[in-house]
Design a protein that fits this description.
Shape: rod-shaped
Number of helices: 8
CATH topology of one domain: 2-enoyl-CoA Hydratase, Chain A, domain 1
Structural class: alpha/beta
Oligomer: single chain
Order of helices and strands: EEEEEHHEHEHEHEEHHEHE
Largest sheet: 7 strands, mixed
CATH superfamily of one domain: 2-enoyl-CoA Hydratase, Chain A, domain 1
């Protein structure tokens, strides 16, 4: 090995195979190889001088390979940068789209709030004209329950607004009727002005419901009926007497309600309606104080 010049090469690629007449070796893990530039051992003859042109060609070859490798690396880096730029641009576009979408949703929500606010204001402004409940039925649990539910909703939604009940009823259950009567008077005490209008008739408990209004209006052809409480009983004498006493107490209570704003006393009303269906015209009802006015036709 002494006296021989050796040159050390470093490359990023594996060294090409040498011809059979030359000797050399390389380490694949580090891509180092050593080439003997002095002697060339041929298996068929003695050693001879190594051609320097071959070394120059190898140098040029590996320089060219290095340039190609650098060029490929540069190209890969450029492609990577392009991908990153496209990704960033796409993400920026997505963010801009999401921002525009969020803005559009916010504007839509604001429009809906404004519309709802205007609707509420309009409803409140027109509440006195629209809070009209038509009671065209007999007085019983089936008719009184929805009436109280609907009017109660209006009272909660539009506190203090006027409420009108249009009444046309043949009468019915005293206790169910008193429930609606007390409820309307309660709303009146809470600030609602209650108007009751009678079209057709306000008979028996219908006449009591007429008295629930702060203003009582009867149609020109309306009729109002006042009579004693009707009831039926059966069984033992003591039990029947209890039932009769209860009915008498209810009649006394109804006569008291009728007399509150009437020109007649409770006793006079009870005497007038004793064993008698007392029908009053619209003008008679107003004259005796069971109504406030006859609606103008």
């Amino acid at each position: 090995m002494s006296g021989r010049r050796r040159k050390l090469w470093l490359s990023m690629s594996i060294m090409p195979r040498l011809s059979p007449g030359r000797r050399g070796f390389y380490l694949s893990s580090l891509n180092f190889f050593v080439v003997d530039t002095t002697m060339n051992h041929d298996i068929n003859g003695p050693e001879k001088a190594y051609n320097k042109d071959d070394v120059t060609k190898l140098e040029q070859y590996y320089k060219l390979r290095k340039l190609e490798t650098d060029a490929r690396e540069t190209e890969l880096r450029l492609k990577k940068l392009e991908r990153e730029e496209r990704l960033a641009s796409r993400q920026e576009g997505d963010a801009e789209y999401k921002a525009r979408e969020a803005q559009a949703r916010a504007e839509m929500a604001e429009m809906q709030r404004d519309q709802l606010k205007r609707s509420e204001e309009n409803a409140k402004a027109e509440a006195s004209e629209h809070l009209i409940y038509t009671f065209y039925d007999a007085v019983d649990q089936i008719s009184i329950k929805p009436a109280m539910a609907d009017i109660g909703k209006w009272a909660r939604r539009f506190p203090g607004q006027n409420i009108t009940v249009i009444l046309n009823s043949p009468g019915g259950s005293v206790l169910d009727g008193l429930a609606l009567y007390d409820f309307l008077r309660h709303l009146s005490a809470k600030g609602h002005f209650i108007t009751v209008k009678v079209y057709g008739m306000a008979a028996s408990m219908g006449g009591i419901l007429l008295q629930a209004g702060d203003k009582r209006i009867v149609g020109p052809e309306a009729e109002v009926l006042i009579h004693e409480v009707s009831s039926g009983t059966a069984g033992k004498v003591s039990m029947m007497q209890d039932r009769l006493d209860f009915s008498a107490r209810l009649w006394d209570k109804l006569a008291k309600i009728l007399a509150k704003r009437s020109s007649m006393t409770k006793t006079q009303i009870k005497r007038k309606a004793h064993k008698f269906d007392w029908w009053l015209t619209a003008r008679e009802a107003v004259r005796l104080g069971f109504a406030d006015e006859v609606e103008k036709g």
